[in-house]
Design goal:
Pfam family, one: DUF1232
Membrane topology: Multi-pass membrane protein
Subcellular location: Endomembrane system
Helix content: over 70%
Strand content: under 5%
Largest sheet: none
Distance between the termini: 58 Å
Main location: membrane
Oligomer: single chain
Number of helices: 5
Mean pLDDT: 81
Radius of gyration: 19 Å
Order of helices and strands: HHHHH
Low-confidence stretches: none
Organism: Oceanobacillus zhaokaii
Shape: elongated
């Protein structure tokens, strides 16, 4: 079972690299580029939308959301573009993935805003009950 999971993860990583190159190709329609760029940016982000320390939900994005995004993106891209990008992806896999610190920073900002909002609401709730 561990070998199956490892093979699945390697295939997923390869597909992300294929999408990385596909979203830079001029033959890909604009709507596919936008969707693909979002999937790739999220995959390369060093921070998850749902943190992994949250039980069950923490791995939801890696197990369900990201594979679904990859599947839809691959269907939007012309087959000839995909075949060209597969070659480039193999080379990139040997060199390691790039990090998308912009998307990572955006996710940190979103979680920061949510945290500040939650703290303010809790503070207001406790002050309301004291009066």
């Amino acid at each position: 079972m561990f070998k199956k999971i490892k093979a699945w993860a390697k295939k997923l990583k390869r597909q992300i690299f294929i999408l990385y190159y596909a979203c830079k190709d001029d033959r890909v329609p604009w709507y596919a580029k936008v969707f693909t760029a979002c999937v790739v940016a999220y995959a390369f982000s060093p921070i998850d939308l749902i943190p992994d320390f949250i039980p069950i939900l923490g791995y939801l994005d890696e197990v369900i959301l990201l594979p679904l995004g990859i599947m839809f993106a691959l269907k939007m891209i012309p087959k000839d573009v995909l075949s060209n990008c597969k070659v480039k992806a193999e080379e990139m896999m040997r060199n390691g993935k790039p990090k998308n610190w912009i998307v990572g920073s955006l996710i940190v900002l979103i979680w920061g805003v949510i945290t500040v909002w939650a703290v303010i609401k809790i503070y207001q709730l406790f002050n309301y009950h004291e009066n």
